[in-house]
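Fold it.
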Amino acid sequence: MPGRAFQLAAGSRARMNNLDRDSYRRFAFQAAILAWAALAVFWGFYCADFYLSRQPGAGPIALYFNFDPGSSSNALSTLVGVNAAVFGIVITVVSIIVQLSSERYTGVARMFLRDRLNIYVAAYYVIASATSVWLAAAGHSEFVPRITLLVMLSLTMGGLIITMPYFGYVFWFLAPQNLVRHIHEDAVRTANKGAHGQDQAECFGAQAEMLFALEELTDIANNSISGKDKIIASASADALKDFAIAYLDVKQHANGAWFSIGPAIRQNPDFVAMDAESLGDLEARRTWVEWKVMRQYLSIYNEALSSMRDVAYVIAIDTRYIGDAAARVNDTELIDLVFRFFNSYMRATLNARDVRTAYNVLNQYRKLGEAMLQQGRTKAAVDAVKHMKYYGLLSFETELTFVTETVAYDLSALAQLANELSSPAESEILREFLELDRAPFVREQEKALLGVRKAQVKLAAYYLSTGQEDRARSIAYDMREEPAERLQMIRRQLENVGSKDFWEIIDRGRNFEFMPDAQRACLPAFFSAVEEAARAA
């Protein structure tokens, strides 16, 4: 059964289809309003002229349609010029708009020419212009082709009327958000076609198209970052996430040929440098599509890291969503891949010495670890803890002590959740957490060590507040060699934090050092246990 992620993806696709239908309805409605307005204006004044001039004989409608062969010949030739002129104006304006969009976003012309409404409108003008050419030669001194003339008058009026609604549609179609949506739709459609292809050639052709679509989204994101357009860059990142989640549904029913590494994949920049063994692993694990998506994320992340941090946060959030979706369908290979790319984000962030981005990425990393615990994936949760600990130690070595402190509080939260869920991973998570302040730490680096110890004290207070004295004593024993001055400082600082809200705006929404009253009340008992452990040693 599809999980909630696929229901969301299906809902997203439904909303996209509704947007297209709404745009078509809007186009048709605007054209209808203009047509009725034009007819009302003409016939209103024509009838007024008829009755005011007191014309004898038949009524105004009969008089109008009683075409005179002599005067109709000039009207027939005029229709040719009108249709050709309108068609020329439309082609010119649309070509300029599409060209300007193509300079910023690749693939615009291809998408534009594949859109049904654009094809229908172009076909309409071509047919109207070509038919009017034939009609121009149909004039005769004794015969007027009334039905054909009425049809051509209607076509010409229609061509004039739809000009403005069509320009509005073109601007709507070429809006960056809609381009991103169209590319995403094409990628999902292509993946579905390739996954259910009848032969290998069809699968390989779909692979090439899908790779191109994903790279288009990356180009739009990177160009938007360069242009400081956060909205479009974030929309592009979200589109990659939506594709990856929707693809999981396609993947479950794909044939074996789809997972083969075709020539387009081997020649792609994200795969060409990989050795044969790595490509073979992607093929065996059936993860080349997800690898491509993650590589696009890493490219966008590196681009955003120095110039638009908010987009880097979006990528971390979207990567977590993909990991959650993979867990729901038991795709362990994708879960491992998500963690590998989270680790790559952390490595790039620490290399850039960007503490704030590391703080936010770790928030998503912790949430992904929490999701693994809640779904009973103990191995994945323990792997997350080990990786976070590694980057905490690495941050300490590179003197990014706040990152180390952040890791400590995140590991504390994971250990507490594991305890609440009675997870088999709890003991290992706790052991990894207590090792965060050991070698290669240098005890003189008290600032980072203080934050780690505070996180451990918070966890111990939680244990005491829930009656788990043995676990609290294990932490007390671990802290038995701490200097009394440092312990007093930790206790004083934790007791003085009475509000969960930090005094600045933060994404996490809670002060690291805040503890509920029940846990804060356990601090004296814990520090007494530390003193007892120190005396026993």
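Confidence is low (pLDDT under 50) at residues 1-13, 439-444.
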